Amino acid sequence: MIKKILFLLLFVQPMYSLELILKSGDAFICDTVEENDRFIKVRFKDKLYEIPKSEIQMRDNSKTGTHKGYTLASIAMLDGSTVKGNIAEESDTILTVQTILGYLSLDKAKIANVTKPDPKIEVTIPKDYLEQSYRLTPIRFGISFFAAANGQPLAAISPGIYGGSFFLEPSNLNWKDTWQIGFKSEYLVSYGEGSRYGFYNQIVYLQYRKSYSKLLDFYANVGVGGAYIRYKRDEAYIEGFQGLSSIGFGYQGIKFGKFTLRIGPRYTQYFEKPFYHNVGGEIALVYSL
């Protein structure tokens, strides 16, 4: 029993809560794990971060509580200076602000503008500070459904096309979670009067992602590949291979757990005569592993 206690005292590093205020004006209540002369390692929610001490404006070891992030209020004064901190109290003539220097009482007549943080916006520690083991982008895969209107000349005999796909987005083909190379295997079918077209598409695509927040999250895909096309009418059929290109974009801000829903328009063009093409909408369910 004594050996176990000695082991815990010597090798287990205790964590304690504190508040960190970064030079960006964002503040976080988190747990400290360890620190050295250059960095402080903290646990914020379910991830570890290594924050350079040069980016920390202030730390307050007296602040405890559940992990949360928030932005400090910014008060622009008429003399051109700016005060950042938490608004502690406000009256008709005085604004009291808690800053890194302590509490300041500001005369409202000398204030040009007050920018208060939006409590609905979730603030988190920048991804650049993530510990290396947390920087790996997850493998993403999923299924999609596509429905579109055919262009001429196919539209004359078969106006619509629909089908589904399976796609894979490997983590080792991702750059900063902004650029992603993915692979899609797709089957589409188009019916006409007494005829049937089948398209077996294999696509390699480059995806660009732009996220402003969890809800404002968008994507754009540009892909190239090949298609095995099979046309059947009654008992006769014709088949062959063609190259293709595809472009699409849309919204991916609907998330629940490890699942993401993507919705957006898409255009597909086949390269060889008679130059089949279609434009429609695609909905995809993505799982992050």
In short:
With 289 residues, this protein is mainly β. The chain has one helix spanning 2-11; strands spanning 16-22, 26-35, 39-44, 47-52, 56-60, 68-71, 73-77, 82-90, 94-99, 102-107, 111-115, 140-150, 160-169, 174-175, 179-192, 195-211, 217-233, 236-256, 259-270, 277-288. The chain folds into three domains: 15-69 and 122-133, SH3 type barrels (Roll); 73-115, SH3 type barrels, CATH 2.30.30.100; 136-288, Porin, CATH 2.40.160.20.
Please write out the topology.
Elements lengths: L1 H10 L4 E7 L3 E10 L3 E6 L2 E6 L3 E5 L7 E4 L1 E5 L4 E9 L3 E6 L2 E6 L3 E5 L24 E11 L9 E10 L4 E2 L3 E14 L2 E17 L5 E17 L2 E21 L2 E12 L6 E12 L1
Antiparallel strand pairs: 1-2, 1-5, 2-3, 2-6, 3-4, 7-8, 7-11, 8-9, 9-10, 12-13, 12-20, 13-15, 14-15, 15-16, 16-17, 17-18, 18-19, 19-20
The CATH topology of the largest domain turns out to be Porin
Query: What is the C-alpha radius of gyration, as a whole number of Å?
Result: 28 Å
**CATH-defined architecture of the largest domain:** Beta Barrel
How many structural domains are formed by the residues? 3
Quantity of strands, as a count: 20
Unreliable stretches, pLDDT < 50, 5 or more residues? 3-13
- Report the biggest beta sheet as strand number plus sense, adding barrel if it closes: 8 strands, antiparallel, barrel
- Biggest sheet strand order reads 12-13-15-16-17-18-19-20
In helices, the fraction of residues equals under 10%
Shape: elongated
Structural class: mainly beta
Distance between the termini: 41 Å
Estimate the mean pLDDT confidence.
87
Q: Could you spell the SSE succession in H and E letters?
A: HEEEEEEEEEEEEEEEEEEEE
Task: Tell me what portion of residues adopts beta-strand conformation.
Answer: over 45%
Query: How many DSSP helices?
Result: 1
